[in-house]
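Supplementary notes for students who missed Thursday's class. We covered one full example, reproduced here. Read the sequence, then the structure, then the short commentary at the end.
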Amino acid sequence: MGNSALKAHLETAQKTGVFQLTGKGLTEFPEDLQKLASNLRTIDLSNNKIELLPPLIGKFSFLKSLVLNNNKLTALPEELCKLKKLETLHLNGNHLRQLPAAFGQLSALKTLSLSGNQLRTVPTQLSGLRHLDVVDLSKNQIQNVPDTVGELQAIELNLNQNQISQISVQISHCPRLKVLRLEENCLELSMLPQSILSDSQISLLAVEGNLFEIKKLRELEGYDKYMERFTATKKKFA
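Structure (token representation):
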């Protein structure tokens, strides 16, 4: 892509606060963007070949949405964690194995999508994020859900298509968790904490495609309580 095309995109972005350049084969984050660091609210560089997010990302202090789906990122810089206004972060289809240590400083974050990466556990840094609504960790290599998950503030947690065989009972303590997706994992019925049914806020539990028949779930103690929440929520949305 020529400089003139990039320049035109930059001029538009200066007016709109949105910089979108998808599917152009970019191999690096456009450095010229930093000229607009105080203008930009949205950056979308999906479907490119970007391998590295430079430290200058920390300068975009007004950024609300950062979308980098389907790139080649293997790590994220600590500077990303300076984005105090960031509400939406989409990083689906990259090669990420972990999140920066300071990720919990992204205090405005509401939506986090990390589907199709190489995470092996639910990142503990997520527990510090107070405004988190939706977390998508589907299609990773997660094998267990640790105790720190009990502090997660999310309303929806998607763990579909991982390799989960163990879940901490703490998950039933999540204060706002209503939707828990665990489809296509490696769960035995005995490894599903019964407190999810009997003693949690969860009103939609999706567990198809594990190592037990769904009808066996109905025999568990607490299933009636779960169904009460499920039905009440359904009525609310009907």
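Commentary. Residues 75 and 233 are 38 Å apart (CA to CA). The chain has a mean pLDDT of 96. If anything here is unclear, bring it to office hours.
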